[in-house]
Amino acid sequence: MSAIISVSNLNKIYAGGFRALNNISLDIRRGEIFALLGPNGAGKTTLISIICGIVNPSSGTISADGHDIVRDYRAARSKIGLVPQELCTDGFESVMATVKFSRGLFGKPPNPAYIEQILRQLSLWDKKDSRIMSLSGGMKRRVMIAKALSHEPEILFLDEPTAGVDVELRRDMWDMVRGLRQRGVTIILTTHYIEEAEEMADRIGVINKGEIVLVEDKRVLMDKLGQKQLRLQLQKPLAVLPQELQAYPLSLGNEGMELIYHFDTQSEHTGIADLFRRLDEHGIDYKDLQSRQRSLEDIFVSLVSAQPPAGAQQATEVRS
Question: Which ranges carry the ABC transporter domain (predicted)?
Fold first, then answer.
């Protein structure tokens, strides 16, 4: 599948010497939903802002649908819709006026039917004549989405789009995202709700300390790192694990009433049968058991916590 966004050797160093991005290279495939995950301050918003032409890179190249974002800014930007984290709209304008204005900024001819379709999909049609300043926070977020879609972009960035919004908007938004993807729109999202990425994304990228830690197909990632847990509810609590069991990937939980066994889903032998035999030899009885697949959130936390500090030195020359 061809790349619609190509990032090569991208760096961002601010005037004070802080390196926000360190040698980022990334291809985003046409028509996919790509989830970019990372802790606060990891560089997610900086990366998105550079691709969207809001922040200047220090070095490196980026193309959007074949257009260089610096040399061919207008063409590149016309391909992109952005829903930023911050709500930034003219509060005195009506919903309809601000969405139409956003479309006109990109030189698109009027298309009342398309604007109406967007507003209806986002449950904004009844508010089309309302001033934005009179809307709730959730409704303002819907307006930001409508603005981003007004010029019919082929690439849509959603930067923490569901932060602080109600369940109804979250559901509506993901329904719309699925519909956009079916029409061929490429969607890049950042989110603190990792279960959303696990449900929606085709591929996962993890960024930490300004560096890309991993980019992988979601299913492959879950298969590779998606360890399972077997939780045994014990008949009697254990103060400590018997010495003979300490070589196993076991831990105690729930004040000794739970025995947790970790095993690799990709391994030919899980070791469960041998574990049960050992438990029987030591007279450890259990009354219930459950298995649990390691979630994307578990994988994300382990990847971020395992990453060593960035080894790149800060540059002394900075370009704006």
Answer: 5-234
* Tens of pLDDT, residues 67-76: 999 999 999 9
81: enclosing H helix or E strand:
strand 80-83
| Alpha helices (H) along the chain | 44-51, 73-78, 95-105, 112-121, 137-149, 167-182, 194-200, 218-225, 272-281, 296-306
Q: CATH 1.10.150: does it fit domain 227-293? A: no
Characterize the bridge pairing of strands 203-208 and 67-68: unpaired
Tokens representing 214 are 């991993």
User: What would the pLDDT profile of 96-110 be if each residue is shown by its tens digit?
Assistant: 999 999 999 999 999
**CATH of span 1-79+153-169+179-226+295-311:** 3.40.50.300
In order, the DSSP letters of 117-134 are HHHHHTT-GGGTTSBGGG
* Residues in Cβ contact with 254 at an 8 Å cutoff, skipping those fewer than 6 apart: none
CB of 127 within 8 A of CB of 135? yes
